[in-house]
Every structure is written in C-alpha cells, then in structure tokens.
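Minutes, project huddle
Topic: does the predicted pose make sense with adenosine-5'-diphosphate bound?
PN asked that the exact inputs be recorded in the minutes so nobody has to dig through chat later. Recorded below.
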Amino acid sequence: MRALMQERQLLISTLIEHAALNHPLTEIVSRNCDGETVRLNYSQLRSRAAKIAKALIALGIEGGDRVATLAWNTHRHMELYFGVSGMGAVLHTVNPRLFPDQIEYIINHAEDRVLFFDTTFAELVARLRPKLKFTTTLVVMTDRAHMPAGLEDCLCYEDLVAEQDDELDWPQFEETRASSLCYTSGTTGNPKGVLYSHRSTVLHSFTACASDGLKVSSRDCILLAVPLFHVNAWGIPYTSAMCGAKLVLPGPWLDGKSLFELAAAEGCTMSLGVPTVWLGFLKYLDDHPELDLSRLRFDRIVIGGSAAPRAIIERLHEKLGAYTIQAWGMSETSPLGTIGNLLPQHDGLTLDEQFALRAKQGRVIYGVEVRITDDNNRPLPRDGKTSGDLKVRGPWVAAAYFKGEGGDVLDDEGWFATGDVASIDQQGFVQITDRSKDVIKSGGEWISSIDLENAAVAHPAVQEAAVIGLPHPKWQERPLLLVVAKPGAAVDGADILAFLADRVARWWLPDDVVFVEELPHTATGKLQKNRLREQFKDFTFKH
Ligand code: ADP
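Predicted holo structure (tokens), as shared on screen:
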C-alpha cells in the first residue's frame, strides 16, 4: 500500500529559500580575497544566488551541466553553492591546492562548461586555459574594478549579478539528481569524482544539525575554517541555511592570526577545520600571550580530515574551554561518518578519561552504518579491541565514482570499503588505527602509526610527527619516526623515545627517530606517507 504523504523533493534550493524566509537578517560575514569584509544576510544571499542562477541559464547552462569553482571561502562561493545546484546544474568545487596537471585532469574529466575563479587564481587559470577541452566560459569572481590584467575577455561575476533580477521559481526535479561533485585527492592514481545528490546533501544536513551530530543551530555563529573546496566544507553551507546559523567566511586566510581576529570580532561559537589549522591557531595563541582569550566564545570545535591528536583536544579545552568534537569521514561519505559526542554514562568519567574517548573518531549516529571485516569480508566483533577493514553504507555514502572510475565500489550487501583500519566498541565508538596502506605489520601484529604520531606530538618540543613502516629482516616491518621539532627546541631522538616509552607498548617503540625540516602533505592537509616511504626507502635501522 502506498502511503498518502506528500512527496516534496529534498532540493538544495529549499534550504536557501527557507533561510531567506525564516532567517532573513542572519548574517554571512565574508572576508574576500582583497581583504575587504563584506556583510550580507540570508535574504541578500538568496537574492544574489537567484541572480547568478539566472545568469547561468542566460549563458545556456542546462540541468546536469558541470560548473566549476576555483575559489576560497567567500560569500560569492556560497552564492554559487545555492545558485548552481539550485538551477539544476552540478557545482564542481576544484581544490586549488592540487598540482596544476591534476587540476587540468579533473576539470577535463568533469567536462566543466563554466569555471568561476577568484582573482588569486588568475595566473593559474591563464596557464590552464589552453588545455581545457570543454570550458567555454570563464568568470572572475570579482567586480569590474578588480578584473585582473590579461583576462579582460573573461566575464565578471558582479556584472553577471547586476544584469539579472532575483525573481526566480527554482526548478523542481527529482531529489536524486546530481547537485555537486568533489574529487578525492587520491594519494595513488588519478583523482576520482564523488557525485552528491540533492537528497544526500539535505539528509546529511539534518545530521549536522542533530544534537548528537554537530548540534548546529540558529544560535551558532560558525567560523568556517574548512575550505569550501574540501568535501563541500563538510556540508556546513547547507547545514547553516537549514537552521539559520550565522556564518563567518575567512576567505583565503586560515592562519592563526586571521582566525583569532575574525572569531573574536564576530563572537563565533563554533568552528571546523583539519588538525593543522588548529595547530597553527594554538601556536599563534602561544606566541602571543598578550591576547585577550576571553574574547573567544568557542563552545565547540570540530576537527576531522586526519586524526585529532589528544594533545590538541586537551589544549583547546585548557586554553579556550572549547569542547572538541572529532569527526571521521571522507569525500565518499559527504563527509560525516562518525561524530565524537559522549553519552550520558560518560558524565561521571574524569576529564582524563573523557579526553581518551574524544581522541577516538566518534560514534555512529543514525544514517551511516559501519562495520569492520577481516580479509574475507567476514564481520568482526564490536569489542573495541579487534581491528579490521572499516566498511560503511548509508544514504549519503557514494555508490560509485563519476563516470564509473574504479569500477564497482560496493560489495554484494552494499558496503563501501573505506580503506581505513579501525576498531568499533559496543556503543559504536570507532577508532581509526590507520589507513590500510599505512598500518605497520610487525612480527604478525599491527602497530598503529596514528597512535604513535599522536603520542609523539604530545612531547612539548614536537611540532609534527609522522610514522612509517620500513622493511625489517626479522620483523617484516618496523616503525620509523620522523619529527619536525618546534623552532629552537633542544631535543634528541633518545628524549623522544624515553617519552614514548611511558605511553605505548614496548614493541611499538620506533626503531629510530629522524629529525626533518618539514613533512609532505596532500592538498587536504594529510601526511603523504607514500612520499615519505619513497624518500626513506634506503634507510637502514641501526639494529
Ligand atoms: P582527500 O582529502 O584525500 O580527498 P578524504 O577527505 O576523503 O580524502 O579523506 C578521507 C580519509 O581521511 C579517511 O578515509 C581517513 O583515513 C582520514 N580521516 C578523516 N577524518 C579522520 C579522523 N578524524 N581521524 C583519522 N583519520 C581521518
């Protein structure tokens, strides 16, 4: 029997319409590429999104066409989030931190018809332009006065907006239509496209608003320190519109000073970013003891993208009284997979015990199912100890990559293999031990490189650490610890090993410690361990 309920489609346009109607005066504060701060509200954002949608229709863009952006966290980029998807096209947010030939590859692979870009990327676009096969329209995201030299034949964003009015009934279509496209940075092989739908995006936003999710509400003022080109900024533009949260967009500036100033000036209650952003932020606070930290109102800080070391969680608590919510996910999971909120039975735990739980990757909340399996895809127990391959499924998890790249990615029961190794406990807390390719196999047992790195960065002289497994004649593999020391710190390998000896099992202790100037990162801030393994492939342990 078919139900008798309305089948209103879950479309991204309904989010911005809702915000404009019910939170018209709530602000979006944007620091643009030229350093100017622009204040808009949801009513104005909706109006400008509608105008840009109409401009795209006038340019001949149709439903399903891909429209690319190379842009920072600004109000114009937000307008494209709603304008492009709202009119039925697909917003392809390109990560500008990728190598230029990767950018060329993905823009051509996506067959992007239009490319919107910030003035910062004028040179990059000038170089890419002759190689783009499908991109016939280039739009500079600025006003006439700031159009870069040499790109006079490109369209100007503010001209497009000025030419249109905002009267628009957003087109209606099925919620399963593609709305946006993000390529995973792919540490091996070519990047692969994850194609989100209107439905997956709206369902994902409900989770971000949920109390056991990220608790985003109209009371929040969110400092968005995760880029709009990184998995849709973890869905926050949509989530904010759904609940009418105030948004603060830092433009290209994610350094500690800029984030501090914006958060203090706007009264931000919440922020989100990868661990390196928070390391930079904490370093800025340490280097400037004169700062008045009472100007910061952070109630919670969401960290994801890489493991949040316990040391960061503790310091954000001590310095700011902020609660860190660690979240785990990936481009293929939109990205929210697990979210680190505690349960009522944890209220009685000591702070130390709570930090230990919050250093895990968080709990399953409704919408994403997780399980761990052995090499034969047999489920393993949820006992908090057994590690296995982490699999996920749910309505905002990818079913395939764009254009079928990578072939079938789901098993017979619909599970997607994340490539992460994890344990799950009875209450659904997931602990990521490693990427499967990074786990260190020593004497038939596994050593978690993430645990070792987290223990090493708790040392006061360590700025950053990476652990890789290297071949060993007796044990198969043994860990090598690479350390970037804090400037001016006097520390040697023996100090660090002594420090670790109190924190990890004896047989986990790295066989050697090497100090390096810096560590290589991917375009999304993750350690590039394949490069490190290549760099240290001829390294021999002393014993
Ligand atoms: P990329 O940024 O390289 O395109 P993703 O953003 O999809 O790729 O990265 C997803 C991966 O990042 C996960 O599979 C996991 O290995 C890692 N990751 C994300 N969040 C966490 C976390 N909180 N703790 C540990 N690892 C994490």
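Observations noted during the meeting:
- The chain is about 30% helix and 25% strand.
- The chain has a mean pLDDT of 94.
No decisions taken; revisit at the next huddle.
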